[in-house]
Amino acid sequence: MTHIPQAPQPQHDRLARFAGRNFSRFSLEHSIHCLPVDETEEDNCNEVNDILRQLLGRAVLPRLRLNETEEPQVLECGFQKAAWIDDILDACPDAWVVGIDIFTGQGTGDDSSEEDEDDGDRPDFYIKKRWNLNASFRTSHDLDLRPETFHLVNSRLFVDGINNGRWDSYVRELRSLLRPGGWLQMVEVHMLFQSDSGRGTTYLERWYQMYQQCLTAMGKNPRVGRQLQRLLTDAGFDHIHHAVHRLPMGGWLEGKETLGGQARDLMSKILRSASLWLFMRVHQPPLTPAQYEILITGAHQELLQDDLKLYLNV
User: Fold this and answer.
1) Which end of the chain is less packed: N or C, by CB atoms within 10 Å?
2) Could you give the CA distance from residue 314 to residue 310 in angstroms, rounded to a whole number?
3) Averaged in consecutive runs of 10 residues, what is the pLDDT profile of the chain (314 residues)?
4) Spans of all domains in the chain
């Protein structure tokens, strides 16, 4: 059995201020999902959820009718601002949902402040848990995370959060949490901008090269999206369905003009939020603010060129 190293656990929701944005202090200290956690990023998370729902067709991908199950139990790994959970509760109000993330605050406090969870509007059947998913669930001793508990587990967008050596055991443990007949759905985005025109880019290619280098330096696997099918197979799953979807950037793809426009607008913001800390603190040598702005400005300009026919694989 693969040994799973002990991983630090967040004990608070303290914030760190960097380049005018609020980050989770734990995230920065332990190189886990180093994106802002403020209101601006909450809007981005909502847009990500909306775009993925449009691209993939629905919030629940497997052939699973949650609304026909009495009090279905759902686990959301990396709930961020809970946009996907909102979709589940809208479609199935009696679902019992557990959301796990390393940060459970609102991201609106001052530097170094510790925030309380905003539970005022939280239904009793939606439970937030602060947990670093690089640690085994077996070490949590949490009654809500017992084996064979959940009808559905959702895991998505962890390329910068799960350590490379943790992925195999992570997927196996998710399988153990499922009830017989339960489903796991996993979604990852490969952040390499590709071109259907055959033409290359300059700034976007450099952005990805630096992003990949930073993730690798942090012990992550920037290509894990391509390995999901193998991970599911090795974990012993049956009825595996694997698909790669093209997410266009801009209005060049017939039938997906609106989606492409939304995706391009979103990615122009994600380019900055996903790289702000990485490029100016993790990358060696770190970019100066002026160098960073030149890179991001150039990448934005390339995103606007519909004739490049850019897309990401999801």
Assistant:
1) N
2) 13
3) 72 97 98 96 96 96 86 92 90 93 82 53 76 92 92 97 98 98 97 96 99 99 98 98 98 98 98 99 98 99 98 98
4) 18-313
Amino acid letter, 76? E
How far apart are alpha carbons 305 and 203 in whole angstroms?
13
Q: Are 93 and 125 contacting, i.e. CB atoms less than 8 angstroms apart?
A: no
In whole angstroms, what is the distance from residue 177 CA to residue 2 CA?
A: 18
Do the strands 178-187 and 190-195 form a parallel or antiparallel pair, or are they unpaired? Answer: unpaired
Q: Which run of H or of E encompasses 29?
A: helix 25-30
Residue with tokens 């729902």: 53
Please tell me the distance from the alpha carbon of residue 263 to that of residue 266, in angstroms, as a whole number. 5
DSSP-derived 3-state class of residue 135: coil
Residue with the two structure tokens 């901008």: 193
Which residue carries 């790669």 as its tokens? 244
Q: For the CA atoms of the chain, what is the radius of gyration?
A: 19
Question: For residue 280, what is the DSSP state?
Answer: I
Res 121: pLDDT: 56
> What does the longest C-alpha to C-alpha distance in the chain come to?
56
| Cis before 285 (ω within 30) | yes
Fold of 18-313: Rossmann fold (3.40.50)
Sign, CA dihedral 133-139-140-144, equals positive
DSSP 36: B
Distance separating alpha carbons of residues 265 and 262, to the nearest angstrom: 5
Backbone angles phi, psi at 261, to 5 degrees: -65, -45
Report residue 20 as tokens: 């005018």
Distance CA 45, CA 39 (A): 10
pTM exceeds cut of 0.85: yes
What does the alpha-carbon distance between residue 14 and residue 90 come to, in Å, rounded to a whole number?
31
In this structure, are residues 119 and 106 in contact, taking their beta carbons and an 8 Å threshold? no
Pairing of strands 15-18, 21-24: antiparallel
